[in-house]
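Hello,

I think I submitted the coenzyme A job twice by accident. Can you confirm which output corresponds to this input? Input:
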Amino acid sequence: MSKRYAGITGTGHYVPEYVLTNQELETIVDTNDEWIRTRTGIRERRILKDKDKATSFMATRAAEEVLERTGTDPKEIDVIIVATVTPDYMFPATACLVQKNIGATRAYAFDMLAACSGFLFALTTGSNMIESGRAQKVLVIGADKMSSIVDYTDRNTCILFGDGAGAVLLEAFEEETGVIDYVHYTDGDDQCLLYQPAGGSKRPASHETVDLHLHSLRQDGRPVFKKATEGMADVSAEIMKRNNLTGEDVDWLVPHQANLRIISATANRMGLDPSKVMINIDKYGNTTAATIPLCLCEWSDRLSKGDKLVLTAFGGGLTWGATYVKWSV
Ligand code: COA
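Support: Only one job matched these inputs. Its output is below.
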């Protein structure tokens, strides 16, 4: 069998209607618009207010959009992977709920947890399935309802995160296109720099864990900032070197949207003109697994077949990586 490639043939997204502005946050915690904008680049973020709706709702809407835009029958989908740290339930997987909602009756479905690197790792998994010949069409979704695990009394973290979902459809190609190469890393030594202390099997929910706010995410911002800046810049430079790419060759940088200063440092290191960097952190904040597919969807009209994209992310775990994609449509 000749080598197969996994190309991205379409994108979809969903963001909730409710806009949580920096000005509204000023009324909730001791912060101010100027501090948030200059330290992070964030002006506002979207929040899924409806108590009955969760991550699967947003993931389903993103999936429906990509199916519609590509004219794909859900029964053609072989695999659904949802990257998330905020699943509807501990189990079943959010991907199973999406599978039911969209009527992908032939697909098997599972979640992937790699925090802010979740979408990249899921993209790698999905593309490997296609390259192996075992799958023809794979839906890869990044979706997070971060508002469900954010402590809105903690000014260090509550200003950073928002809710949203993005999806891509991967399909098999004979020509060299789609996911060309990837470099992924993990460093479990620093697992507690960014994590959700309770709710898992180590500290199941109890009165004490609730009283201590241990079901909300915790982040030691300064070291995470330093490691994220180094990690994203280094891994992006590494993937460029492996593929003989210069800043001139790369058409788009698609960075995880955690902090505008981290994004700028990565673009600088790659020798990239700022006009080639996808940035929407100002509107959505950090939507964890959704940031990269949200960017791909928002920029999809400006992408042409053959465009060279470097996707890069850094997140809890610690996890980080970069993926080199040639746009397929
Ligand atoms: N409003 C106003 N002041 C705030 C604040 C807020 N929301 N949050 C923190 N501060 C204060 C701090 O208390 C501190 O005050 P002090 O000097 O009197 O102690 C001061 O601002 C500086 O805090 P510091 O944490 O050093 O700020 P920073 O420049 O590192 O920015 C982050 C904080 C969170 C924006 C930054 O560390 C960051 O982006 N970290 C990484 C995020 C990330 O990449 N996440 C992981 C990948 S998903």
